[in-house]
Automatic annotation (TrEMBL):
Protein name: Unannotated protein
Pfam families: Asparaginase_II
Organism, as annotated: freshwater metagenome
Amino acid sequence: MFNDAVLAEYVRDGVVESEHRGFLAMLSADGTIFKSLGDIDTKVFPRSAIKCAQASAMVRNGLVLEPRLLALAQSSHSGGDMHMDGAREILASVGLDESALQCALDRPIGEAEKRAWGEKPAARIAMNCSGKHSAMLATCVKNGWSIESYLEHSHPLQLAIKAELENLAGETITLTSTDGCGAPLFLLSVIGLARVVHAATISSDPVHQSVINAARTFPEMVGGNGRHNTEMMQQVPGLFMKDGAEAVNVTSLADGRAIAIKVSDGSQRAFRTIVHACLKEFGIDTSFTPEKVMGGPRVIGTIRATI
């Protein structure tokens, strides 16, 4: 990728075998740049890392959900019963069922949830973004907007989400694409992405407070058991975290310190190592098991952060 930097190294017997390059923006509590690697003005697709902004736009436009379901509305969930049942609750609250969903067909992404699903065919309700799509549909019903065209770039809901994101990022969206789930996807700079999570975290706006606090209170709804963002929010009081496909991650602390990461090769293999190192830069030493590089039955290396 363009003007990226090494974020982590895969080391075997003291030799760097592979590198994970990318972009890193770390903000201080006051929003100034604490540390950066790579050209943080580079535009990237933030994928599901911006779901707090999408959820904020929905709440601003009349969506009312209890915190458990508001956490699900900004999730990339594992596909457990609690997630699928929650999505059905959101739909039922406005008189809809899962037949209204237009997200992609998929199976659960959590390992235990995959096993529980078995050989059943893919379904929209099991797709990891079904909570977001259910909330989008509920917002449309609340406003009398079309539910058939809710994924079109020109739909009032998507224009409201774009405006919310631009406001939080402090930049203009120049390109709208389509995410893997079928929803519009907005191109954003890495520093803009860091500003999104920083601004939402320190905001005095009740909309932003409700969204961020819902995720912190119900982290199992944002991801699922064993998922990185869920475990980190459970471990560190006041921490907010959301990952996205193609190796994007945003993290914030209660005082507004924020992190945005994009790994250029799209691999999440080094995420835990990089996030652990970033938080350590902020003085927070989280419990962490380093990646094991095996040589037969022996551990002969690890992944190490280079920040």
